[in-house]
Amino acid sequence: MTQAFDAAAQQKLLEERAAAALMMARQLGADACEVGASVDQGIGVSVREGDVESVELSRDQGVAVTVYVGQRKGSASSTDAGDESIKTVVEKALAIARYTGEDPASGLADADLMATRFPDLDVHHPWALGTDEAIELAVSCEAAGLAAEGIRSSDGASLSSGEGVRVYANSHGFMGSQCGSRHSLSCMLIAEDGNGMQRDYDYTSARKPGELRDPAEVGRSAAERTLRRLGAQTPQTGRFPVLFDPSQASGLIGHLMSAIAGGAIYRDASFLCGRLGESLFPDWFTLGEKPMLVGGLASSPFDGDGVQTRDNVFIDKGVLASYMLSAYSARRLGMQTTANAGGARNLRIGAELQSRDELLAQMDRGILVTELMGQGVNSVTGDYSRGAAGFWVENGRIQHPVEEFTIAGNLASMFAGLAGVGSDIDTRGSIHTGSWLIDEMTVAGS
């Protein structure tokens, strides 16, 4: 079993060390300072064909210090959060600051923006999980998958469970801390027929261990997903509607958020530069975040600058309503922070949802994409080209699996051509979305 993790004691210790770092920075000549400190502990096991492949008990900690001397900035970090290490980190950060150029946008977020509300967001649910129990759960998950007729072998099952504490403090007098947990279980299987081997997987993830899916269910689902890929063909080349499975549709939202991130905007490195207030999606589509969502996988009352988080709407009835800004990127753009230092939290879609069958009927003839490969996304131009696998659809019905093809388009036209969002919402991550039906993309196959 992992060493007992006293979250309250760790939180107090990190807060004391953060306060000590702030005091030290002030004494050594910093005009302002911010400190991030964290400690995480977890267990991870992996099994294959019923045998244990690895058992990992981890405990990681770290501290990062950023100091400001006028408008010069210096940052340093260490994986040792002891008193002597903190002193060394502060000294290094100050040394760096004295050699950097002045940046008019540098500095802490405004003091009046600091978080003052710290509700219980129900994000810390530790799991007193012993090594033997963790192995047993992974083995049972894999065994359920291997029991399915047609499954040849396993590529492994893995279970991980962890919890941690993070603290952020700055010289405005702000001190924020949060405990959290994350647990997951996955299984990957292999099937074979006359055309060769296929591989697929399934997983479950949650803050609370009791909300994980049953291990046997995960294994059986992994088997089902693997078996349905047998007999895959290469689709014909052409332009067709493409239905992105929820697991892949979340990636499209990720590309959108990267494109509206303040860092990309002020560097003029996004295809959405200068498009604030313009229509990007159909008018029935809205996208926002809920960082104070109770139990959310990305919930937090404060962002990486200590700013109070709040609900934000990024796409309002199809229109790009807001960029995603930290204090620094907001200053670079002459705007106000959206409390998104560290990214968006708990993204949710507002739209009339359709069932998977309704979306398939609407597309009539095209491709359902369940896997994407490669990194062919250009955030500057919006050009999109990815290797893919999935299923061919004819007359609104899935006909057979397909693989070894590429889908291509441009994110701007794909967003504008969003024809429907599914009710089959994937809730395993911080982005909750169903399937996305894009009206037309280029498919390069046979």
From TrEMBL:
<comment type="similarity">
    <text>Belongs to the peptidase U62 family.</text>
</comment>
<protein>
    <submittedName>
        <fullName>PmbA protein</fullName>
    </submittedName>
</protein>
<feature type="domain" description="Metalloprotease TldD/E N-terminal">
    <location>
        <begin position="33"/>
        <end position="97"/>
    </location>
</feature>
<feature type="domain" description="Metalloprotease TldD/E central">
    <location>
        <begin position="125"/>
        <end position="230"/>
    </location>
</feature>
<dbReference type="InterPro" id="IPR002510">
    <property type="entry name" value="Metalloprtase-TldD/E_N"/>
</dbReference>
<dbReference type="InterPro" id="IPR047657">
    <property type="entry name" value="PmbA"/>
</dbReference>
<dbReference type="Pfam" id="PF01523">
    <property type="entry name" value="PmbA_TldD_1st"/>
</dbReference>
<dbReference type="GO" id="GO:0005829">
    <property type="term" value="C:cytosol"/>
</dbReference>
<dbReference type="Pfam" id="PF19290">
    <property type="entry name" value="PmbA_TldD_2nd"/>
</dbReference>
<feature type="domain" description="Metalloprotease TldD/E C-terminal">
    <location>
        <begin position="237"/>
        <end position="445"/>
    </location>
</feature>
<dbReference type="InterPro" id="IPR035068">
    <property type="entry name" value="TldD/PmbA_N"/>
</dbReference>
<dbReference type="InterPro" id="IPR045570">
    <property type="entry name" value="Metalloprtase-TldD/E_cen_dom"/>
</dbReference>
<dbReference type="InterPro" id="IPR045569">
    <property type="entry name" value="Metalloprtase-TldD/E_C"/>
</dbReference>
<dbReference type="Pfam" id="PF19289">
    <property type="entry name" value="PmbA_TldD_3rd"/>
</dbReference>
<dbReference type="GO" id="GO:0006508">
    <property type="term" value="P:proteolysis"/>
</dbReference>
<dbReference type="GO" id="GO:0008237">
    <property type="term" value="F:metallopeptidase activity"/>
</dbReference>
<dbReference type="InterPro" id="IPR036059">
    <property type="entry name" value="TldD/PmbA_sf"/>
</dbReference>
